[in-house]
Design brief:
- This protein is an alpha/beta fold and 182 residues long.
- It has a single domain, classed as Rossmann fold.
- Helices cover 31% and strands 31% of the residues.
- It is built from six helices and nine strands.
- It has a five-stranded parallel sheet, with helices on both faces. Strands 1-2 form a two-stranded antiparallel sheet.
- Helix 3 packs across helix 4.
- The chain is globular.
- The two termini are 21 Å apart.
- The model has no long low-confidence stretch (mean pLDDT 96).
- Adenosine monophosphate binds next to strand 2, strand 7 and helix 5.
C-alpha cells in the first residue's frame, strides 16, 4: 500500500475541515483536528504511512512544529524508531542550529538540536509535516537535517496545496510524497 486509491483519498480528505479566512483574510486553513478526532481516519492514515515506510530502513523521523509532531511521532512509534522535533526559534533548550527562510513578508526560522541524530552515523531521516504550501518551511528543515551530517531521504506531507508549487520546488532537493493533494 504505497499510495492511496482515489476512494481512500476521498475518505481521508473528507475528514479534514476547511476554515475560511483563518488566520487572516484570504487563507483557507486546512484543519486536521477533525481527522485526528476521528479514530478510524487517524488510524487509517497511520497504517498507510507505516506500510509505506516500513521497508525504507529509516533511522529517524523528524517532524516540523507543530502538526508535524503529531503525525511524525505517531509514525515513529509505529516504526519503533526515534523522533526528532524541528521547532520554531527559542523553544529547544540545548545547543541548536537554525535556518532562516523567507515568507511573503519577512523571515521565519526553524531550529534543531545540534546532536539530534548523533546516535547514528550517516542517519537516514524522513521529514514529516501536515501540509506543504510554498515549501519554505520544509526546505529550511531539510537544510537543517543535512547540516547535521544526516540525510533527508524523503519529505512526507499529509496535504499538498499544489497551486503553491512548494512540492515541485522541493523535488529538486529531495523525494517528496504527499498523501493527499488539493
Ligand atoms: P509553507 O512553508 O508555505 O510550505 O507552509 C507550510 C507550513 O505552514 C506547514 O507547517 C503548515 O502547517 C502551515 N500552513 C500553510 N498553509 C496552511 C493552510 N492553508 N492550512 C493549514 N496549515 C498551513
Amino acid at each position: 500500500m504505497n499510495e492511496l486509491s482515489f476512494d481512500e483519498k476521498k475518505y481521508l480528505l473528507e475528514t479534514i475541515r476547511d476554515i475560511k479566512d483563518f488566520p487572516k483574510p484570504g487563507i483557507v486553513f486546512k484543519d486536521i483536528t477533525t481527522l485526528l478526532n476521528n479514530k478510524d481516519a487517524f488510524n487509517f492514515l497511520t497504517d498507510h504511512l507505516e506500510n509505506r515506510y516500513k521497508n525504507y530502513d529509516l533511522d529517524f523521523i523528524s517532524g516540523i512544529e507543530s502538526r508535524g509532531f503529531i503525525i511524525g511521532a505517531a509514525l515513529s512509534a509505529r516504526l519503533r524508531i526515534p523522533f526528532v522535533p524541528i521547532r520554531k526559534p527559542g523553544k529547544l533548550p540545548y545547543i541548536t542550529i537554525s535556518q532562516k527562510y523567507s515568507l511573503e513578508y519577512g523571515f521565519d526560522e526553524v531550529e534543531i538540536h545540534i546532536d539530534a541524530f548523533s546516535s547514528k552515523k550517516d542517519a537516514k531521516v524522513l521529514l514529516v509535516d501536515d501540509l506543504i504550501a510554498t515549501g519554505g518551511t520544509a526546505k529550511a528543515s531539510i537544510e537543517l537535517i543535512n547540516q547535521t551530517n544526516a540525510t533527508c531521504v524523503e519529505a512526507c506531507f499529509l496535504l499538498d496545496l499544489k497551486d503553491l508549487n512548494g512540492s515541485k520546488k522541493l523535488k529538486d532537493f529531495v523525494k517528496v510524497y504527499s498523501v493527499l493533494e488539493v
